[in-house]
User: What shape does this take?
Amino acid sequence: MRLLRNRKGFTLIELMVVVIIVLVLAGIAVPVYMHYIQEGKKSEAYATIDAVVAGALTYFQRNNTFVGGTMANFMAADDVANATYFTYALSAQAATGFTVTASVNGTWAPAAGRVIWTHTGAAAANGDAGTGAFTETGW
Assistant: This one.
């Protein structure tokens, strides 16, 4: 009896229980953390597209069309050139709208991941620059 009272330390079972608890917590925490990192990197796409849209609206006010606009004409060339996590493309330019697509650059997210701004409804005769909406695909 005297030996059991003087015993110090942990048994192997107690240590294994602690290790299992830590592994379960890590198994939950790591994917959640990775999701937050991915969402944080996505904010670059939204900010850069917002800069492109602001420049596009200015371009529209001067030219009454989006046709012929480029990232440089839309005053967003620096924002696009300094982007880290996405590559940007301007497409579907028409008198009444355009599309900006941000595609994942690198391996931090699914290769098919895209953030897309579609701008429609502009009418120069009415002084209406139109509206747009974001969509996400491939996530």
Notes: Residues 12-63 form the longest helix (52 residues). The beta strands are 86-91, 98-104, 114-120, 131-137. Residues 8-137 form one domain. The mean pLDDT is 92.
